[in-house]
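for the writeup, i need someone to sanity check this before i put it in the appendix. the sequnce is what the collaborator sent (i think, or maybe the updated version? ugh). structure was predicted straight from it, no edits. if anything looks off just tell me and ill rerun, i have time this weekend
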Amino acid sequence: MATDYYGVLGLAQGATDQDIKRAYRRLARDLHPDVNPDPEAKERFQEVTRAYEALTDPEKRRIVDLGGDPFDAGAGGAGGFGGAGFGGLGDIMDAFFGGAATRGPRSRTRAGRDALIPVELELDESVFGTTKDLTVDTAVLCDACTGAGTAPGTHPATCGTCSGRGEVQSVQRGFLGQVVSSRPCPTCSGTGQVIPQPCPKCGGDGRVRARRTLSVKVPAGVEDGMRIRLTGQGEVGPGGGPAGDLYVEVHERPHEVFTRDGEDLHCRVTLPMTAAALGTTLNLKTLDGEEELDIRPGTQSGSVLTLRAHGAPRLRATGRGDLLVHVEVQTPTRLDGEQEKLLRELAALRGEDQPGADREAQGGLFSRVRDAFHGR
């Protein structure tokens, strides 16, 4: 029966990519071996990671949605959708016509699976790049038997059940005549060989689980959700088979000042009403250091000022994005007597002490609002 990968992440079928990412992050933070040493949490983390890998790959997710398991070659994975108790066309022909062509034993050595590990980065690390030492827990080659799976001084032996063919046949008589079917040998699992004396360290699998540290170079400009591929650093396969790849998925922590939109960064500054009216120069702390930002006289609330090339580098091109500074003008809420007097004098000088007085000349405040609603 195929694994319910949606259920593993606590989701329903049809969940969005963002739902899947959020669910995985929430579970990974609690279950990662570096945070939770409980052996059950370790197994659960591997299960959650496997589900995330299945649902974030479009082809694997298609297989999951059709009711199969993308990691099971016999149930819709690498071998296509032949599962649910039915063999391929060759098996059907054999069943009806007694062909039973021998496919031969399969190799004990098989390729390993890919692995996925999250890494959390600060904004400046993802913008400028960094090098991270990551602890990974994967299957590695058994150093005692170098993948052979046998105890020192011993060798695999030919399977006595299938005589090394890797499969066994059964004959049944039916209304169509004699029916011959083949299936993998249950003793040797289709390899044609058995290991009389397994390696005491790996139990005959040719690989063991081990924790190791990898140095990962994070390129400048990576974004949240991107993956860095480390070829051959994933799971070693059964029988000491070639390792899969390790994918390092970037999770960017929120910054207290800046938000990111692709290559551009955004921040917000608040100006006193007087500074916005008269103009000023701000010393703005950016990721590159302190920069001077000129505020022109008469700057309005909601204005956006741009610092060119102060954003994130472009990953597949040259140059950098921009830093966009959003201006908010702050209106004073408390004035002492002298301040209120001066402000009233300024309003009188500007003819703003009676906002509706120029209604006939300029249409008036309320008529302009009305015109906006009527599309004038």
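Residues 74-102, 359-369 have pLDDT under 50 and may be disordered. Residues 39-56 form the longest helix (18 residues).
thx in advance!!
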